Amino acid sequence: MSEQDKLSQIMLEDGAYSTRLSRKFMMRKPYEKNDPRVIKAVIPGVIESIAVAAGKKVRHGDTLLIQEAMKMHNRIKAPHDGQIKAVLVTAGEKVVKGQILIELE
Amino acid sequence: MSFMQRIVDFFSRKSTVTKGGGDKAISKQHAGGKMTARERIAALLDPDSFHEYDLFVEHNCQDFGMGDKELHADGVITGSGTIAGRPVCIYAQDFTVAGGSLGIMHARKITKVMDHAINLGIPIIGINDSGGARIQEGVNSLAGYGEIFYRNTLASGVIPQISVILGPCAGGAVYSPALTDFVFVVDNISKMFITGPEVVKTVLGEEISMEDLGGARVQAEISGNAHFFAKSEQECFAQIKQLFNYLPSNNRQKAAAIAQKKPKASYKIENLVPKDSKVPFDVRDIVRALVDDSEFLEVYELFAPNAVIGFGRINGETVGIICNQALVLAGVLDIDASDKIARFVRFCDAFSIPLLTLMDIPGYLPGSDQEHAGVIRHGAKVLYAYSEATVPKITVILRKAYGGGYIAMCSNHLRADFVFAWPTAEIAVMGPEGAANIIFRSEILAAENPDEMRKLKVKEYTDKFANPYVAASQGYVDAVISPEETRAYIVHALEVTKNKNETRPARKHGTPPF
Fold it and tell me: How far apart are CA B141 and CA B170, in angstroms?
């Protein structure tokens, strides 16, 4: 009997059911709340230049850094007014999708 | 040339062209564990039934040095033949000729045989084994694909369309199979994707093998692009023949009936179902206890296994069977199960195949992943497909029939012709535990021993509502029947619905939540 064939429990509105789980069900990712203070790379690429440093106050829409990806210079902008808590990348650095670039206070 | 010379010349031309890409390319195809296009056609069709057309078609590209190149039959073999004596149109891409790449003449051969199939009301089978567009032919090869997709759409619901992926099928080429009714894949041979592993790596930085990205198992189990998964080409052809058996040739005919056989006696329905409705059982055992000779051809066996769909025969006639499968994910409806059921129901309706639904549904799968991926619009497809279907619709409620899931699984309200329920059926707005927690919330909270009170109230609700009689009292269930009577009721229902003729308001077409 494979891992998938074993009976597990699943919680539904009406309580626990014993059943098998599908491979796709086990592959699902838990929900993560989006934190607007954490700026992540939405696409892999290279950091072209950084326009801010820790402690700097920024306004909504200010360019924080430029990331080259898919042959485009993407301006990563401040999602709201705030102060830079930390810059976690350096110019020239390769970043992967989902990597944290900058944190705001 | 004398008459004889002409005949000799003809055979010599024919033998050169039928060699495709030549002996070296053929050995390479074999070394990869693959049959050649001609071998595949021969293996799939009745012996000596294949008649080939357009053997002498040649490409007409002059660019990039293509003018000097001969591409025999332009890399695709087309024609017609029979499977179990019934006519079928077929094409098979020949990977030994320029990697089976698709140029405009290659595409015209395919569209010609598709037009044939549509005009003659014959099913079409396409065997895909191609590196993709023939780049040298530029926009002409795109035009070729477009013409194929257009015809796939025209043929949809008119003739059964079957796609067999026996090699690469990448980029735009994937959309022809995607538009057809049934897609067959073979382990380690089939590869389908829009963008290959190399592009995925450059663009996203993701390292993934071809097999993990778009191999047969992934397409059959995860993406749901493939309906049938086989370990070998031979097994795949056996599956196609089995499926073919259940289908009519076009939408103007009914699938041919055969002599009826009783289910094998070894299945005792009453022993198959556990008393506790939260304990699973394999609903396929119930299906086998109901269908002729206990023969059931499951479609989408690996994809969304919380629903089971497939073809069987009852009283000799093809029936499309749809079940909730308590054995996996408690049989909930989720996005994949909804897509799986809705598409199947529409196929059966288009080809006059009656629908038999076996209901045992606890509800929908909760979770942010489901909600965010659109379980609402996907779930709506099930309601749409069942409501739209005008073929005979027979529903048997085995156990749970809760909430929206009850409505969706071909209830009386979506115009099932007959709804039968076993005495074990629980037809209610929600399950006893969930319902008791809401209805008796304040009593449970105020009680000295809330757990005791909850148990008491769950029992109260169960006794009152977790049965088929409340729904039966409203006429939503046509008959409460004992499990061993089920087949007899279904046989009778199929007999009396034979001349069913239901119409819908005139319209160009509906606007289902695609």
Answer: 14
Q: Do B204 and A44 touch, CB atoms closer than 8 A?
A: yes
Residues of B in contact with A7 (CB under 8 A): 280
Helix (H, G, I), strand (E, B) or coil at B125: strand
Say what the pLDDT of residue A4 is: 59
**Helix (H), strand (E) at residue A77:** strand A72-77
pLDDT at B30 over 50: yes
Residue B296's H or E segment, with its range, is strand B296-299
Coil, helix or strand at residue B443: helix
Nearest by Cα to B361 from B400, B309, B307, B403: B400
User: What number of other Cβ atoms are within 10 A of residue B382's Cβ?
Assistant: 26
Give the one of A11, A19, A97 whose C-beta lies nearest to B328's C-beta: A19
Cα atoms found within 13 Å of the Cα of residue B221, Cβ hemisphere only: 17
Residues in A touching B434 (Cβ below 8 Å): 13-15
Q: Is the ipTM of this complex over 0.85?
A: no
Element (H, E) at B318: strand B317-324
R_g of chain A computed on alpha carbons: 21
Could you give all domains of chain A from N- to C-terminal order, each with its CATH number? 38-104 (2.40.50.100)
Among A4, A17, A68, which would you mutate to test the B interface (most chain B Cβ atoms within 10 Å of its Cβ)?
A17
pLDDT at residue B189 greater than cutoff 60: yes
B306/A17 Cβ within 8 A: no
Residue of chain B minimizing CA distance to A13: B434
Average pLDDT over residues B67-74: 91
Q: How confident is the model at residue A1 (pLDDT cuts 50, 70, 90)?
A: very low
Tell which of B328, B332, B426 to mutate to test the A interface (max A CBs under 10 Å): B328
Q: Are A41 and B302 in contact (CB under 8 A)?
A: no
The Cα–Cα gap between B358 and B405 comes to 12
What does the pLDDT look like over B274-331, one tens digit per residue? 988 889 999 999 999 999 999 999 999 999 999 999 999 999 999 999 999 999 999 9
- Measured CA distances, B45 to A94, B104, B164, B237, B256 (Å): 55, 27, 14, 9, 19
Please compute the mean of the pLDDT values over residues B385-392 and round it to a whole number. Answer: 98
Residue type, B45: L
- CA of A7, closest CA in chain B: separation in Å? 8
Helix (H, G, I), strand (E, B) or coil at B477: coil
Q: Where are the alpha helices (DSSP H) in B447-497?
A: 450-465, 469-473, 486-496
Which are the contacts of A32, defined by CB distance < 8 A and separation ≥ 6?
Answer: none
